[in-house]
Please model this.
Amino acid sequence: TLAHLHTHGTHIDWTSWYPATPTPRTIPLPTYAFQHQHYWLAPPAPRLDSHGNGQDPAEARLWDAIEERDVDALTSTLQLEKDGPGLDALLPALPVLSTWRRRHRERSTIDSWRYRVAWQRLPDPVAAPTLCGTWLLLVPSGLEEHPAVHATVQALAAHGAAHEVVSVDGADARRDALVPRLSHLPDGSTPEGVVSLLALDQTPHPGHPAVPVGLAATAALVQAVSRTGLTAPVWCVTQGAVAAVATDPLPHPHQAQVWGLGRVAALEHPRLWGGLIDLPTVLDARTPARIAAVLVPGQPEDQVAIRSTALARRLERAAVPDATPAAWRPTGTTLITGGTGALGAHVARWLARQGAPHLLLISRSGPDAPGAAQLAHELTTLGTTVTLTPCDASDRTALQHLLATIPTEHPLTTVIHTAGVAENTPLAELDLPGMEAVLRPKALAATLLHELTQDLGLGAFVLFSSGAAAWGGSRQPSYAAANAHLDALAEHRRARGLPATSLAWAPWSEAGMAADETVSDYYRRRGMRPLATDLAIASLQYALDHGDTTVAVADIDWERFPTGFTAQRPSPLLSGLAAAASPGAGGAPEDTAAMSDSLRQRLATGTPAQQHQLLLHHVRTHAAAILGHPTVDAVPPAQPFQELGFDSLTAVEFGQRLSAGTGVDLPPTLVFDHPTPKELADFLRERLVEGELTSEGHLLSELDRWDAVCKPSAVDEAARRRITGRLRLLLAKWNDTERDTERSAAHGELETATAEDIFDLISDEFGKS
Model:
């Protein structure tokens, strides 16, 4: 008992235990005998009320006693007699109070999980926006005369920029074929920026019909630009793809897929990604200027809708209505896609408990799916009629036939689309078959469900979307695109007066990827706590009760999540929430950039051995942080990362942290390609030091510095002649076509100089002797 008290920080008064005189000598015991490191759990944090204030401990004990219906704790807390009249009067109210307390806590939790997308008005620029250089304008073949193309051309031409139109056949767009078309302009210069209107082509890809041609071409574009080494930002323009104002009809939900893909591109390629611009369905004379204002370098917004003004996309907490509406209840037949999967099964059980008369569960395997028979028995026991049917919801003919078989006594009233395929593919490695595999069961199936049921008078049309669509997710380009389509489809249906609710879920704790403990830990470290399944279902009920169109449901730690999410790129999308949680959170990207610059400066002034030690310490520090160690001593330089506890998920997170800290794009396979901290430090030194010294940017900046400090008028004519000769020799060395001629002339100049002249030239102009 004393040991237990000691390890929890309780002071032990040994003099009371040993009253003998003289008092026995006592020795302070460490919490652990050989390592000066504490492993004891910290005391629980005080409970906070709805206003963030600490809850009174006595009040917390009282409500705990009521909620648990613990009579002994209740009498002790209230100082009542067990046989007294006060307790007798209180006991009948305990069930009511306990139920109220549980519902209140559940409601508070659900309210804290709810987010929605809002659009914040941007001020019109005080002065006309100014652009410069030449921009590449990528346009779908056959749509060169599209009004959105004309508006974008005018935005560039009227505000100081030239442009070069590149027509792209989206059905045949390949990254390797696009690279030479993007690398240089016809005059040999590099573009100032890239504006893509490829999303305007919404036709199905001829070889992969679930993939819009514009989405396929946009993915190829991002891949191609990442291979060219261009630093010009890539902007993607859509039209009618988002619902930025209440009157938006959102006629083109397919184009919203580019918005989902773009949010992933911003995370995976933060230095080349510019952003997303959605144009109104009807363009006016002010639209080009507003486009130009978004394209101006340095402005922070990267998700903008242009309407009667420019609007910036924001994530904010969803308002909680005061009124309590009538609870939604299922009637007739409820069709659930992915009905035998983990999510679908949870939804089916909830509907059965709500009294659903008939559940139609469809999946590719139908009754042959693992656990399907057991699920059907469980649902039948709850009192509902269950039909398990194999059906591919992305097959129009099969789906149409299925709908025709629904019994007339239980007409179709509700569609719940939970089907989907997970993805773990970097955008750089994405291909058309992979996109098809993800988009078909999620986006294409949703479109067919919409088209085939829009005239059936449904009471509810529920789409299971994902947080990857709401804010983006690394290695989920197709998945984010598919779910962004679901959110847009819900807005499209509501604009037409049809029921629709799209819920962008964070991971569930007992279903999907986050059911795996490793994945769950990964999300928690990034500030995204997996959702308890019972409360996720309650959130679904809540959304249907209140008639939500689109809502994100996530348990986000706003102290931690923005730090990782904005490690390589600022995110105005999260600015309001991050600032509310931590006033300093908004500075994280700038701090990271400053760290990267500081690291490079220290490397530039160090010896090779110092550079290696600096980078080794940098690697070990980040590895220790990822693994949860307090010091770098737990990460030996020669021990393999996999032996230290790295897996594929922590490797991705590690690569992202190192990319942010070094300013270098690093592959997610970093710890497998360079398996120890020492080897990884050597690799980073090659990239940061040796590669930097010979990079185009470094050499050009050195030339600019030399030009800025060296004035021809500062030396006499003889010196100018010798320097000119030396420069001609260097030019001949770099110019293959004129090498022989220039070298001969340069040598002629140098041959007239004395040895002293040569050494003076080298010492004065190049700092060497």
